[in-house]
């Protein structure tokens, strides 16, 4: 049995404190030449850094010129037509003045809503499976690879698939077919962002919940998902923003309509449905000034909706970083 360490005497303790005070009194910057730390363009590395920074800044501003030009044109051309009638009236006939695209706004919201209802549960649960699956799982690798391939899937092919699977089966264009086509485009984004958000949750949180007696299902439902929710919602918002601006899939599935979806107090989703993207496509090529102006106004409204959705997604992303 080892003997206990000897207790230092009072003199040794005072000597130790005196030595610590002397070391603390020494200037920590003694011997440092501050002139060597000054930024000088005469130094090759500093000069190269300044040149490259200027080049990157200039290229960034040059790339933003088309974006600002498009936004200026949208605000200038589309803002002149903004009025309450745009949101309450139907598209006008050729040579007819006035009108609006209230049915197209409602149709866009309904089809994006259908796609969101279909994809969010499936996408989030798939992301949970991919994040919790073993690293050597072939099924998880196959699903992850398929999701990454679908992120670059041409939108028109999603419309062709929905046309063959839904439109030909039901016998007509409809909001349901349009929503399913948009769901195909939204699903991979939600899957991959959900997996990334769940994988970022510290493993200690799940281990702590299991240590307290929770099952794997309870740990996922009560710990992982609430913690990763800001990242998951970011992916959902990004997917919604992409779906809202798609045109090609809706040309094959929902087509277009000059009427409201609600007739005689009933919502009919199994009929051709108007959308902002298709309205812009149709009206922008017409030789009538009123329709072209409505197309500019519709583009402005659509950009505003996409921008708001992206800003909401960015706010959720900041919450994920702060956590």
Would you mind describing this structure in some detail?
The chain has 323 residues and is mainly alpha-helical. It has a single domain (80-322), classed as MetI-like (MetI-like fold, Orthogonal Bundle). 71% of the residues lie in helices and 1% in strands. The protein contains twelve helices and two strands, in the order ααααααααααββαα. It has helices at residues 10-25, 44-79, 85-88, 102-132, 138-151, 155-170, 175-199, 203-211, 216-244, 248-253, 276-284, 289-322, and strands at 262-263, 266-267. The chain has a two-stranded antiparallel ribbon. A hairpin with a 2-residue loop joins β1 (262-263) and β2. α5 (138-151) crosses α7 (175-199) and α8 packs antiparallel against α9 (216-244). The longest helix has 36 residues, at 44-79. The relative contact order is 0.12. The model has no long low-confidence stretch (mean pLDDT 86).
Structure summary:
This protein has 323 residues and is mostly helical.
The shape is: extended
Spatial order of strands in the largest sheet = 1-2
Largest sheet: 2 strands, antiparallel
User: What is the CATH-assigned architecture?
Assistant: Orthogonal Bundle
Task: Estimate nothing, just give the exact number of structural domains.
Answer: 1
According to DSSP, the number of beta strands is 2
How far do the termini sit from each other? 50 Å
Radius of gyration computed on alpha carbons: 30 Å
Instruction: Name the average pLDDT.
Output: 86
Helical residue percent band: over 70%
The CATH class is identified as Mainly Alpha
* Contiguous runs where pLDDT drops below 50 for at least 5 residues: none
Give me the number of helical elements: 12
Instruction: Supply the helix-strand structural class.
Output: mainly alpha
Can you tell me the CATH topology? MetI-like fold
Order of helices and strands: HHHHHHHHHHEEHH
CATH superfamily: MetI-like
């Amino acid at each position: 049995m080892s003997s206990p360490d000897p207790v230092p005497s009072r003199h040794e303790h005072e000597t130790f404190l005196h030595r610590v005070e002397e070391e603390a009194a020494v200037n920590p910057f003694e011997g440092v030449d501050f002139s060597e730390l000054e930024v000088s363009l005469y130094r090759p590395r500093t000069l190269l850094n300044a040149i490259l920074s200027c080049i990157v800044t200039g290229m960034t501003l040059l790339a933003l010129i088309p974006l600002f030009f498009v936004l200026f044109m949208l605000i200038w051309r589309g803002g002149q037509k903004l009025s309450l009638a745009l949101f309450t009236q139907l598209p006008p006939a050729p040579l007819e003045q006035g009108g609006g695209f209230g049915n197209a706004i409602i149709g866009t919201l309904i089809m994006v809503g259908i796609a969101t209802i279909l994809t969010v549960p499936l996408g989030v649960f798939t992301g949970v499976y991919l994040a919790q699956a073993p690293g050597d799982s072939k099924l998880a690798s196959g699903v992850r690879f398929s999701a990454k391939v679908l992120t670059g899937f041409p939108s028109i092919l999603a419309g062709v698939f929905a046309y063959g699977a839904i439109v030909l089966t039901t016998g007509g264009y409809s909001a349901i077919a349009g929503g399913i086509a948009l769901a195909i485009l939204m699903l991979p984004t939600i899957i991959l962002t959900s997996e990334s958000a769940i994988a970022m949750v510290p493993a200690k949180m799940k281990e702590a919940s299991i240590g307290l007696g929770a099952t794997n299902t309870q740990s996922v439902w009560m710990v992982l998902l609430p913690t990763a929710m800001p990242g998951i919602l970011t992916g959902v918002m990004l997917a919604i923003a992409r779906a809202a601006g798609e045109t090609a899939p809706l040309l094959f599935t929902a087509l277009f309509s000059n009427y409201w979806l609600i007739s005689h107090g009933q919502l009919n989703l199994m009929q051709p449905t108007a959308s902002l993207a298709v309205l812009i496509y149709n009206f922008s090529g017409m030789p009538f000034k009123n329709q072209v102006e409505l197309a500019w106004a519709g583009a402005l409204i659509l950009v505003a909706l996409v921008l708001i959705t992206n800003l909401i997604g960015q706010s959720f992303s900041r919450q994920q970083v702060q956590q």
